[in-house]
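Closing statement on the S-adenosylmethionine sub-project.
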Amino acid sequence: MRNLGQLLQHGHPHPDTEGVTIAHPRGYELCGAVCFGGLRPWAYSRLARLSGARPGDRVLDVGCGTGYLTRRMAKAVGPTGAALGIDPATEVVEYARGRTREAHCSYETGVGEALSAADGSFDVVVSCLAVHHLPEDLRPAALREMYRVLRPGGRLLVADFRAPRTRPVRHVIAATTGHVMADYRVDLLDGLIADAGFEVRGCGDVRPWLRYVQGVRPE
Ligand SMILES: C[S@@+](CC[C@H](N)C(=O)[O-])C[C@H]1O[C@@H](n2cnc3c(N)ncnc32)[C@H](O)[C@@H]1O
């Protein structure tokens, strides 16, 4: 029997990436609401604040999915700034466009490991729950791409799934979403980010499921 994660994903490989892509945006949104137990708006607004984005900034959201964080980033930067979400899955990109009214918030299809943006074209790069969707060997390339498209002095915020330590809860996560999430080593993010060239400036947890790392591209 397919687990919940498999039901939400494409059943076939994506032509542009080996990453695991989301095929059912409405199902994903429902799972997000249920799994965060009502804390999703608070958690994502906190991520937007932790990113350090300011009015007027240009922001990129890598692996934006349904655009839940992208829209919060757009609010943070205001109409003088711009928020762009990218994701390989056309289904989530179209869904995100349908949920967004602000002209300064847009979406494109694209892959984190080979971004189409020019060098230094963003002030802030964010990414939430997307790094674990990439196979391990593509993760360093995705972090290097985030570094490349940030201007010197630009800020990075990567958040990802913090697998619980208690065995019964991990067992439930493995049964419902698979072992990639249950066994995900979010503690390795700091090293990946440092290896890509960033100065790691902070890290912490956002309840109930996220750990974040903040970085800066050196001037
Ligand atoms: C769990 S969702 C997270 C979506 C959104 N950031 C959020 O926090 O709700 C992971 C997303 O990563 C996307 N993804 C998969 N492979 C990717 C790649 N190579 N580059 C960028 N995003 C990718 C998936 O399509 C999916 O939308």
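The mean pLDDT is 95. With this model delivered, the sub-project is considered complete and its resources will be redirected to Aim 3.
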